Amino acid sequence: MSPPKDLVRLRHMLDYSREALELVQGKAQKDLDSDRLLGLALVRLLEMIGEAANRVSPEFQSLHPSIPWSQIIGLRNRLIHGYDAVDMDILWQILKNDLPTLIEEMNKIFSKAES
């Protein structure tokens, strides 16, 4: 059984991930250049995903190696500390290529936890 706090934080990660994908639905990469609020919102959501991941216990993280914990936390750190040098091309690739897979993996964890 997973500690309740870990599942709450994983739920935050899942919710923020879904919200980020909803924001880019129907959008193109060039929209990040022309819509500053969209870019800021997406950066913030990815920061929050990373912060929630950082608060998940090491034990829970080790039980779920399909989640790239260190990469998610590392992205958060890069976004926070490199706020003045966010590469929107990389951000777009993460949103389009990595986030759907992350959501799928988190859904699997919740499916197992609920059964």
Describe the structure.
By secondary structure, the protein is an all-alpha fold. The chain has one domain (4-114). 78% of the residues lie in helices and 0% in strands. It contains six helices and no strands. α1 runs antiparallel to α3 and α1 packs across α6. The longest helix has 27 residues, at 88-114. The chain is globular and about 45 Å long. It starts with a helix and ends with a helix. The model has no long low-confidence stretch (mean pLDDT 95).
Brief characterization of the structure:
With 115 residues, this protein is mainly α. It has one domain (4-114). The chain has helices at 4-24, 31-34, 36-54, 58-63, 69-81, 88-114.
Look at the structure and give the mean pLDDT: 95
Count of separate structural domains: 1
Structural class: mainly alpha
Low-confidence stretches: none
Query: Beta-strand level of the residues, as a percent range?
Result: under 5%
Please describe the biggest sheet, giving its number of strands, its sense, and whether it closes into a barrel.
none
Distance between the termini: 11 Å
**Helix share of residues?**
over 70%
Give the helix tally. Answer: 6
Task: Please tally the β strands and state the result.
Answer: 0
Structure characteristics:
single chain, 115 residues, 6 helices, mainly alpha
